[in-house]
Design goal:
The chain is an alpha/beta fold. The protein has two domains: about 5-315, Carbon-nitrogen hydrolase (Nitrilase/N-carbamoyl-D-aminoacid amidohydrolase, 4-Layer Sandwich), CATH 3.60.110; about 345-655, HUPs (Rossmann fold), CATH 3.40.50. Helices cover about 40% and strands about 15% of the residues. The chain is built from 20 helices and 20 strands. The protein has helices at about 20-35, 60-75, 180-185, 205-220, 270-280, 285-290, 335-360, 375-390, 410-425, 435-445, 450-475, 485-490, 510-520, 525-535, 555-560, 565-575, 580-590, 595-615, 615-620, 645-655, and strands at about 5-10, 40-45, 85-95, 95-105, 110-115, 140, 145-150, 155-160, 165-170, 190-195, 225-230, 245-250, 250-255, 265-270, 310-315, 365-370, 400, 425-430, 475-480, 500. A seven-stranded mixed β-sheet has the order 13-12-11-10-9-8-15, covered by helices on one side. Helix 9 (about 410-425) runs antiparallel to helix 14 (about 525-535) and helix 16 crosses helix 18. It starts with a strand and ends with a helix.
């Protein structure tokens, strides 16, 4: 698939215990189903060719031989299927029996990965039958293909024509131990881990299992495909629920229902994984692991000779298909309401703690907030109130300054005044029309010309007023601008761009709205909640142009584009560095039915142009707290030159 996506599946066949021929037919049927849906990596449960619950029947020659025979048939059956498949079976070598995962692709048996950690506690007694797997890769003879096949734990499978696709395998208990094989697999370059498993059900085990798999994928920054045994296994003492899980860097992409045999499919994003590893300089390379003794006695040049063995395979490029992956249109905002409320409380606490420390350190007992009645200044005020409460400072030492001018409407002015009174802050009105008009006379600006000078003069006058009032009261100007505005450069340089501490600098516009909504929903003051809800219903505007019929004439999103789109772009540009064409594709999918492709492309191009040309404003930002995984601070997450060329990004966009 395009753009670094690879379609994967975890499937649970309905089996018969100790009937490899029947089981092969069920596995093959699922492989064909997967092929029709363009699956390119498919994982089946542990020992699924025989059934996990064969017990001492595993010691019988007929079962061992039949399992290997049916594997040979399955390898032949895979010849015309474009997928890498992992299937579990018992495998005998040198008089010992191993619990293995066989990797097959395009009619070839690529390798055998043995289980290293054999449980022999509670309901498990694998050491009675099986021998622990070997680390070092050895060659074993496959009489069906009549060739030597690599067998060992340190075996990975690299796709020759899909960049970044390297697959490692472990089996069931391997992931439950303190040092799973998947750790060394990923250190050796694996980006996807597969697990052929037979984990029985007990009360509450499903949640633990899900957390384990998702947690391992996060710890290793990898994709993880977990296929579990289900219906068909013996229920003499145990029940297997078939809980299949596909995870990616801590996120569960797909999960099957329990107690039914299902196949789950998802599209993994290999570029996302590569981006995360590239960004995390603490994620070790193989050479680091060797130096640190993880692979004793091995150096980087010994990788193929003495360390991991790589087997290569290739996959055909699939036709364009709809992504099997949920793409949230608001990546900064959790989907789940409970999680969203928890996140809002956490962010408000981070913002307030940041301001609290700055006030404490500077000895400031007064805060100055330019209150417009809009979303950003509302959030800044609410955060300031929290910080003052935590410091035990009286709220009347918060100075709310409302500064009406040419574009101010009665609605926003009224809300600013009500809000200041409701929180107990001091409210001061300073009309700046005369000051701005005099400034226009000084510089020869025609007041009837509503150009950028007309707009920015108001913003800079407001900032001057706030700074001077702060000097008067011995206070600190609290910045109101949010991260979305900083990304677009939608701020007047040395106007609203400037403050003494910017509490909203790490909060994107889509999240600002949820934070204010959360405050309105949880505060006990009904009148304050009513004001906050009206602020939420007010169009986003800098209110720098005269109103039309008493209503806001200048709507920000009509000028720079919808903030929900820009926040989507910002997240994927900053968090993963995706190609513009990939971000476009994902946005079209996420906003299907809301924006046409041409509209998405238009605003994406504007985003890139503004993001590159406005870096000089971000290079001299006031201090402010980082609250999420994306930040534009020039001292923290974004060391970007102010005069970087955007050519290669725009050229990619033009290919759409």
């Amino acid at each position: 698939m395009r753009d670094g996506f690879i379609r994967v599946a975890a499937a649970t066949p309905k089996i018969k215990v100790a009937d490899p021929a029947f089981n092969r037919e069920q596995i093959l049927g699922l492989m064909h189903q997967g092929a029709k849906q363009q699956v390119q990596i498919m994982v089946f449960p542990e020992l699924c060719l025989t059934g996990y619950t064969c017990g001492d029947l595993f010691l019988q020659f007929p079962l061992i031989r039949k399992a290997k025979e049916e594997l040979g048939r399955l390898v032949d059956d895979s010849r015309d299927l474009d997928m890498l498949v992992f299937v579990g079976l018992p495998w005998e070598r040198n008089g010992k029996l191993y619990n293995v995962a066989a990797a097959i692709c395009h009619g070839a048996l690529l390798g055998i990965v043995p289980k290293k950690h054999l449980p022999n506690y509670s309901e498990f007694y694998e050491q009675r039958i099986f021998h622990p797997g070997n680390d070092d890769v050895v060659s074993v003879w496959d009489e069906f293909q009549e060739e030597w096949i690599p067998m060992g734990s340190r075996l990975v499978f690299r796709c020759e024509n899909v960049p970044g696709l390297i697959v490692g395998a472990e089996i069931c208990e391997d992931v439950w131990v303190p040092c799973p094989p998947s750790i060394s697999h990923t250190m050796a370059g694996a980006t996807v881990i597969v697990n052929c498993s037979a984990s029985n059900e007990t009360t509450g085990k499903d949640a633990y299992r899900r957390d384990l798999i998702c947690g391992q994928s996060a710890r290793l920054v990898c994709g993880y495909i977990y296929a579990n045994a289900g219906e068909g296994e013996s229920t003499q003492d145990l029940v297997f629920g078939g809980q299949n899980i596909i995870a990616e860097n801590g996120t569960c992409l797909a999960e099957s229902a329990r107690f039914v045999n299902e196949m789950v499919i998802a599209d993994m994003d290999l570029e996302r994984l590569s981006s995360e590893r590239r960004r995390m300089n603490t994620f070790p390379s193989y050479s680091q692991a060797a130096v640190e003794g993880f692979f004793p006695g091995q150096k980087e040049e010994d990788y193929l000779a003495r360390g991991y063995t790589e087997m290569t395979f290739s996959l055909k490029e699939t036709e364009e298909d709809e992504l099997r992956r949920f793409i949230h249109k608001a990546p900064f905002v959790p989907c789940d309401e409970g999680e969203r409320q928890k996140r809002c409380e956490e962010i408000l606490s981070i913002q307030a703690m940041g301001l609290k420390k700055r006030l404490e350190h500077t000895g400031c007992g007064h805060g100055v907030v330019g209150l417009s009645g809009g979303l950003d200044s509302t959030l800044a005020l609410l955060v300031t109130v929290r910080a003052f409460d935590q410091l035990g400072l009286p709220r009347n030492q918060i100075h709310c300054i409302t500064m009406p001018c040419f574009g101010t409407t009665d609605r926003t002015y009224g809300n600013a005044c009500k809000m200041a009174r409701q929180v107990g802050a001091e409210l001061k009105e300073i009309v700046i029309k005369a000051a701005v008009s005099l400034h226009f006379q000084d510089i020869g600006q025609d007041e009837s010309v509503h150009d950028v000078t007309y707009e920015n003069s108001q913003a800079r006058e407001r900032t001057q007023v706030l700074m001077d009032v702060a000097n008067q009261v011995g206070g600190m100007v609290i910045g109101t601008g949010d991260m979305s505005e900083l990304a677009l450069g939608w701020a007047t340089y040395n106007g609203d761009h400037m403050s003494m501490y910017g509490v909203n600098a790490g909060v994107p516009k889509t999240l600002v709205r949820h934070l204010v909504q959360y405050y309105a929903d949880t505060c006990r003051e009904e009148e304050l909640a009513a004001v906050l809800k009206d602020v939420l219903d007010t169009p986003v505007s800098p209110e720098l142009l005269p109103p039309e019929g008493g209503k806001i004439a200048q709507k920000t999103e009509d000028l720079v584009g919808p903030y929900e789109l820009h926040d989507f772009f910002l997240y994927y540009v900053m968090r993963f560095g995706y190609m513009p064409s990939k971000i476009y594709r994902m946005a079209v999918r996420a906003f299907a039915g809301e924006y046409e492709g041409r509209t998405v492309k238009k605003w994406l191009e504007i985003f890139y142009r503004r993001f590159f040309t406005q870096q000089f404003k971000r290079s001299c930002l006031p201090d402010g707290p980082k609250v999420g995984s994306v930040s534009l601070s020039p001292r923290g997450d974004l060391r970007m030159p102010s005069d970087a060329c955007m050519r290669i990004w725009i050229e990619d966009l033009e290919q759409i």
